[in-house]
Amino acid sequence: MPYTGQKFDQTLTVTEPALWSPESPSLYRVKQQLCDKDRIVDERMTSFGIRTITCDPVKGFQLNGESMLLQGQCLHHDNYMLGAAAYPRAEERRVEIVKAAGYNAVRCAHNPPSKHFLEACDRLGLLVIDEAFDQWVTQKNKQDYHLYFNDWWQRDLASMVLRDRNHPSVIMWSLGNEIPDQRSVLGANLAGQLTAFIRGLDDSRPVTIGANMAGEVGDALFGHLDVVGYNYPPKLEGFASDRPRVPDRVMYTSESFVADAYTTWMDVLSQPYNIGDFVWTGYDYLGEASIGWHGFTQGWKKIGPYPWHLAYCGEIDALGYKRPASYYRDVLWCTGQNPISAFVMSPTPSQPDYEPNNIQYWLHPDLQDHWTWPDYEGRDLEVRVFSVYDQVELLLNGKSLGQQAVSRDTQYIATYQVPYEPGQLKAVGYTQGEMQASWLLQTAGAPARLQVSADPNRDPGRWSRLGLCYGRGCR
Description:
Layout: E1 28-36, E2 39-48, E3 53-56, E4 60-63, E5 66-67, E6 70-75, H1 88-100, E7 105-108, H2 115-124, E8 127-131, H3 149-164, E9 170-177, H4 185-201, E10 207-211, H5 219-222, E11 227-231, H6 234-245, E12 250-257, H7 261-270, E13 274-280, H8 291-294, H9 324-333, E14 340-345, E15 367-368, E16 380-387, E17 391-396, E18 399-405, E19 413-419, E20 424-431, E21 434-442
Parallel strand pairs: 6-7, 6-13, 7-8, 8-9, 9-10, 10-11, 11-12, 12-13
Antiparallel strand pairs: 1-2, 3-4, 4-5, 14-15, 14-16, 16-19, 17-18, 17-20, 20-21
C-alpha cells in the first residue's frame, strides 16, 4: 500500500522566553524525530527565535513592542573576489561588517539570500527584508525571469517562505523590485495573488515591495500590501501626496541615493509612518560597473568597460572597509561610533569622469581619508568634518583654524579651506564648550613593509563594539 502521509499538530510552550532582537539575538533549537515504534528513522534540528513584529502609521515599526527605525542598506548577494558562491564564513563576515558599520537592517536585492547569510543574521542580530523577484510577467531583459514566472512563481515563493520563515531576522516578505507590471491592472491582480499565497504560508510578517512609482497609479497594487517601499524620487511624491490621501499607509524608502543621506534620514525622523531608509547601496558589489563613477553624468547604462567590474557605489567598499559616506551615517544615526570624523576633498579627481559640481545619484563626494598631499604645499584643500557635537575645531600642527557651529542647519558638517602643510590635522568636537572627542589625519612616512593577515579569529565584535541608537530621540 502506498504511503499516504499523516499530519501532526503539536504545541510547545516556552515559559518566560528570551526575546530575539538585534541587541540580544537569543536563539532556541527544537529537535524533531520521526520514529517507527522505537526506531528513529529521521531527525531534524531547527533554530528559531521568539519575537513580535507590528507596523502601523502611528507607532511605526515595532519589535517586541518597542518602536525602532530601520537603518538599512540594500545588499547584493556576491562576495566580491569569491564571486556569487555563498561560503558560510564569507556570509558571516559580511553580516559582521554591516552591523558593525551601524546598519541594523538589509533589504536583499533582488532575490532571496543564502541560508548561510540568514543564519548569520539570526546569530548576530541583523534585520532582513527577504525579496523574491526582479520581474513578473513583463521583461526587463530578454532572457530574464519573465520567461518562467507563470510556471514557477508559486513554487519559488513557497521555497523562499518555507525555507526562511523560522528565521527571526526576517521581518518582511518583499514581492519584488521595480516590477515593470506595477502600474497595470494585471500587476495589481498579481500582487494580490502573490500576497495571498504568502499569507497562506506565513501570516506573521508584513508583505511589502520596492516600487518606483507613487500617486493614485499605485493604489490598486499598494492596497494589497502591509507596508509600501518607495525607491528614489517617487518617495518624495509618496510621502508628500500619498500620506495625506492614504493616511493608514505605512511607508519607507526601499532605495535611496547616497547623496540624499541627510534629507532622507530627516524625513524618517519627522514622519512616524516612515519606518526607515535603505540606501543603494550599503556594500559595494559586482555588476552595474562604474555607476558610482558616472552616476547620471553620462547615463548610468553606459557602464564602464573591462576591467571595471564593481558598481563603486557602496558606503562600504568591496573589501569591507567603510567609505566616508558610512562615517557620515555614524553621525546621522548616532551609532555611538565615530561621533566626529574628517576627510579631504581630493583636489584632483581620483575617479574617472568625476564631476565635482554634479554630485548626485550614486556618486560619492570624492573624499579621502589621509593628509599626504606632497604636490600641494601651500595650496588650499577642502576639509569636511562630520560631527554629532555642536562645535567643531580644526587644528593644523597644533594651530587652530577656528571653530564652527554644527547642527541640522549645516547638515552636521563643518567645511574648512586648509593650506596644506605636512604634519597633523586634528578635528575636535565640543559640547557646551567641553571637549568630547577628536579625529586625527597624519602625513604618512615612507613605506616600511607590506603586511598581509588572514581572516582573524571568529569574534562577532571584532569589527567594533556596538553602541547603536535605534530611537527617534537620538537626533
